[in-house]
Amino acid sequence: MWLFTKRSEYNYIEFDYEHLTDWTIKTSDIDHTFNVFNTYVDASRDYVLEFAVLKVWSKADLRRIMSIISRHRNIKAILGIKPLNYGYPKNIQIVLKGDAGDSTRYMAHVLGGIEVKAVYENGIEHWGFIFPNDESAKSFLTMVGKRGVIKKYRLENANMDNIMANALRNAALLLTPSEFKITKIAYSKGYFEVPRMIKLDDLAKELGLSKATVDEYIRGAVRKILEHVFADEA
Fold this sequence. Notes:
The chain is α+β, with helices and mostly antiparallel strands. It contains nine helices and eight strands.
């Protein structure tokens, strides 16, 4: 097994959230779903990127939700928007650049969390994260609780050696070649051991890549595998 060692005991958090300071809270009366399929966190420049598919059931709802997104202080820019079908309900691919200061995923990122699920609908955000330990998971819940209302949540231990066994057999199919290569090297160097045998800075130097690039590949790989695992459990 190449991703987690036998000592790796993680925590999985899944919760529904009313984010009182974000744009999502203003959409409670708009019938829609906003399904995030990829993200990027740039801690050095304080922004996050969301790659998502927005689904709406009418032109009026589309206009309203785009007005909310474009005007909200947490959104720095709409970097891309592309309809995926004609008529309604309409699916729209959208890329948002958001402020890291009020970002739920940014708070998880700085505590070592890996995002598994992010779906927003009718004013409620549905989240799922993996954290490296109980302390960081509870610290995260405390932080997000200061910016909104946690409607319900579950927090459970996740022994990666057990839940990842089947998913790892398909890792090469789930991951891009770069994700597979870099994550496998990271494992061989002890990056996933507790405590880590190599720091992200040193790993990046060995690979000849930037720290942000290596972090993005590893997080992307782990997220894909965890999404696969928890989707199968649902």
